[in-house]
């Protein structure tokens, strides 16, 4: 083993450890790993930057804009509600939801689909007294099924496609992956409507848990008429840095002030609403001129009126809030909202809100101004799952243009009239020229953190290949699976890709496994397409953890799920996908 190979492997192992421990955002961790390889001279500047011109990465960027235009058009808004039906037979409704969701995510980014329809499904369930935990994991899984059906269904497919083109191969055709993923997806839907449905918990949502336990963490105090606090700011009154309580709202003459700025001056008869540890309420009782309302019947619904409303948001994979407290991130001033409570792993965290270190998947109950959802709906820090009460006015002409453009793009790529990148460029150009999408809007739709992660991961994949590290790892793979032949090698590659996907990210998993798989195929003298299909399916088929795939994370808190729920329901589904994939690959690409 040469020094370069050893150095690359050490950097990659360090990167994986940092990703698993969530030391920083995934895109930052992968960028730092690439930077180390560049600065050490292992990678030349040209090779390090190749990921930023990769055809697959650029196509992903363009498809973000197309997906954003479709979401904005409003053509999908009533689809799920209609497909769910009456709800009299829950298993039938489950199938009716999963089929169109799979079809949609075959052509659109699945993250906005799940963000858009999570509140719709929850509302539908609430109206019929059905637990949303029976429907939200299936919603996420359905979009994963659909994402593996086409070349453009998920960014992972496009990244592998881009790598193949760089190596002088043809790449995937539009529906090539459907040879494997369509049977696997159909079996997956049958499984979810039978065995999976039984394994899914019948549990309260985070919203219901918040509401039922509101007496445990909401408290109220009033500024007395002759209080020495009158005229003092929140900070001067000592109300900003209480040990266990967090001031989220001030009610003055019927008006609600949300969030509460530290420079606001108190007045007599102000009602102060706190969240946090009620065991520390003695702090308030010791403040002269403040009357604590004991035995308050305050509920969540009492906190909102015309100007203030409650919003649920899920902390995203790429959030800048991860590993920071609300105080450290200056949440109140940056987002113009106050955190009422934090829900994690089906439980409200019983700590002072301002001192909770946030993690990906945490569900935040926020008290915010009415326009909060509209202002932060495209933020990379969290996924908003509360329905936006004032939806944008839909322009019918723009909706028609969007649908026609999407169909044109799919047709041009499917019939090989244009390469996928060219078809996406044409689609985005049409959307810009017709003013269906503005440049400002396009910037909001593009997930730059995802693109940075893909581009940097490609550079690391190149380092694996160029230094010979991929060949070394391939030798070990071939030796380990020698008795099992090609089929054993494909099973090993699929399994390792699945593990990487569950603990890091799907794109990083695919990029790391591509050069290794190519080297294995060369040593076994077989068609590498068999391995690339296995990687594409395995990298997306992430069912066993909430952190492995964005859509699983989005429904984690809103569905009231625990980590173990994904293991119980997801592991059998992972096994089903492994068996179906390997069997079909064996007959189509090996025998």
From TrEMBL:
Give the taxonomic lineage as stored in the record. Answer: Bacteria, Bacillati, Bacillota, Bacilli, Bacillales
Question: What domain of life does the native source organism fall in?
Answer: Bacteria
Q: Where's the RCK C-terminal domain?
A: 205-290, 298-382
Q: Where are the transmembrane segments?
A: 28-44, 56-74, 94-118, 139-160, 172-194, 406-433, 445-464, 476-497, 503-521, 528-549, 569-590
Tell me which UniProt keywords the record has, alphabetically. Membrane, Repeat, Transmembrane, Transmembrane helix, Transport
- GO cellular component terms? plasma membrane
State a single Pfam family of this protein.
Answer: CitMHS
**What GO biological process terms are annotated to this protein in UniProt?**
potassium ion transport
Source organism per UniProt: Salipaludibacillus neizhouensis
Q: What is its main location?
A: membrane
Q: How does this protein sit in the membrane?
A: Multi-pass membrane protein
Query: Is RNA-binding a UniProt keyword of this protein?
Result: no
Protein name, please?
SLC13 family permease
What compartments host this protein? Membrane
Q: Which InterPro entries match?
A: Cit_transptr-like_dom, DASS-Related_Transporters, Na/sul_symport_CS, RCK_C, RCK_C_sf
Give GO terms: molecular function aspect only.
monoatomic cation transmembrane transporter activity
């Amino acid at each position: 083993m040469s020094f370069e190979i050893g150095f690359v492997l050490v950097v990659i192992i360090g990167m994986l450890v940092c990703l698993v421990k969530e030391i920083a955002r995934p895109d930052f961790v992968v960028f730092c790993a690439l930077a180390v390889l560049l600065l050490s001279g292992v990678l030349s500047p040209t090779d390090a930057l190749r990921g930023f011109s990769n055809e697959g990465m650029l196509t992903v960027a363009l498809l973000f804009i197309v997906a954003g235009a479709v979401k904005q058009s409003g053509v999908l808004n009533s689809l799920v509600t209609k497909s769910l039906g009456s709800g009299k037979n829950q298993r039938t409704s489950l199938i009716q939801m999963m089929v169109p969701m799979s079809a949609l995510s075959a052509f659109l980014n699945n993250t906005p689909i799940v963000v858009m329809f999570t509140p719709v499904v929850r509302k539908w369930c609430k109206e019929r007294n059905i637990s949303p935990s029976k429907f939200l994991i299936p919603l996420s899984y359905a979009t994963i099924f659909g994402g593996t059906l086409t070349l453009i269904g998920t960014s992972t497919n496009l990244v592998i496609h881009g790598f193949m083109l760089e190596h002088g191969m043809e790449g995937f055709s539009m529906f090539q992956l459907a040879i494997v993923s369509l049977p696997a997806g159909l079996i997956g839907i049958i499984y979810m409507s039978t065995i999976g449905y039984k394994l899914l918990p019948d549990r309260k949502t985070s919203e219901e848990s918040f509401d039922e336990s509101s007496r445990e963490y909401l408290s109220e105090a009033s500024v007395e008429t002759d209080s020495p606090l009158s005229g003092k700011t929140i900070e001067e009154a000592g109300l900003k840095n209480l040990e266990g309580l967090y001031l989220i709202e001030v009610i003055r003459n019927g008006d609600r002030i949300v969030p509460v700025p530290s420079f606001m001056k108190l007045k007599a008869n102000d009602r102060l609403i706190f969240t946090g540890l009620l065991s520390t309420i003695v702090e308030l009782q010791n403040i002269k001129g403040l009357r604590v309302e004991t035995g308050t019947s305050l509920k969540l619904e009492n906190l909102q009126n015309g100007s203030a409303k409650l919003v649920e948001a899920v902390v995203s994979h790429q959030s800048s809030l991860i590993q920071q407290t609300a105080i450290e991130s200056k949440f109140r001033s940056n987002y113009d909202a106050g955190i009422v409570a934090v829900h994690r792993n089906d439980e409200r965290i019983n700590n002072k809100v301002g001192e909770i270190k946030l993690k990906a998947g945490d569900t935040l109950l926020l008290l915010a101004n009415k326009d909060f959802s509209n202002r932060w709906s495209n933020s990379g820090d969290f996924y908003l799952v509360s329905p936006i009460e004032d939806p944008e006015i839909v322009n019918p002409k723009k909706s028609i243009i969007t649908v026609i453009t999407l169909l044109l793009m799919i047709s041009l790529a499917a019939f090989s009239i244009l390469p996928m990148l060219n078809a996406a460029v044409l689609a985005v150009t049409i959307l810009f020229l017709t003013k269906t999408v503005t440049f400002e809007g396009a910037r909001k739709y593009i997930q730059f953190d995802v693109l940075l992660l893909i581009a940097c991961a490609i550079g690391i994949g190149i380092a694996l290949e160029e230094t010979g590290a991929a060949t070394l790892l391939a030798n070990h793979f071939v030796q380990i699976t020698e008795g099992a032949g090609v089929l054993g090698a494909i099973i090993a590659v699929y399994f390792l890709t699945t593990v990487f996907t569950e603990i890091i990210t799907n794109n990083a998993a695919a990029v790391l496994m591509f050069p290794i798989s190519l080297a294995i195929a060369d040593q076994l003298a077989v068609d590498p397409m068999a391995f690339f299909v296995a990687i594409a399916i395995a990298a997306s088929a992430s069912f066993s953890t909430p952190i492995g795939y964005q859509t699983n994370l989005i429904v984690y808190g809103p569905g009231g799920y625990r980590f173990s729920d994904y293991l119980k329901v997801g592991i059998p589904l992972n096994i089903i996908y492994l068996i179906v994939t390997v069997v079909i690959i064996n007959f189509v690409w090996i025998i």
